[in-house]
Fold this protein.
Amino acid sequence: MTNGNQVVEMALAARGQDGHLARMLRFCTLFVLAAFGQFGVAPLQAKTLSGKAVVVDGDTLKVAGDTVRLLGIDAPERKQSCTMADGAEWRCGGWADGVLRGLVDDRTVICEGDVRDRYGRLVARCRVHGGDLGQGMVQRGAARAYRRYSTDYVADEAMAVAARVGVWQGEWVSPSLYRQRSVAAPVAAPSDCQIKGNISASGRIYHQPGQRDYDRTRITPGKGERWFCTRAEAEIAGWRPARR
């Protein structure tokens, strides 16, 4: 039989466990909120949108009057250019928009998400006839897996890279880096050091004066890019020469 002292001890133990649980729940809540704040998104109740979609760009739609950012992918910006295998330049940003339009094809789109980004867009996974739009874009080389927010499409990206489809057929700059460059002021070259050490999705590449992409290549030291005085210096540091 349980005596009075045992009852008190059991109550105190339960109370202590409840307090520990409460502290753990508070910690987890703070952790989640901090993570959302770091990535510029805000949690909300799960939301489902359904209807015909209007393509804004390669990773953004308007559905049922709301703007949707496709979860887990990052497509080239509309004005962004890439290069083909032969070195020819092409407007991969506009092409990516067209790929998404083809996937949507005036059909009903269903989007489900539970966060909004810093621009107020619903970050969601969208489907057409059961097909995942984000996955379709990555598989076609029209977007890359946006690992900062999701790793769902990393395997699809690996297959696109191996097949050299879409943007992976040549050299291109990741959309996030392109966006940073579009607002960053160019860094002046040190005297007598005119070789540009650029970092792109294709790796570390150096450009010499007179090459085709030299003038439009910007150096962002914060991303590890730098100037070199000689080709030998660049290659010793791990950069390879640009093909054109």
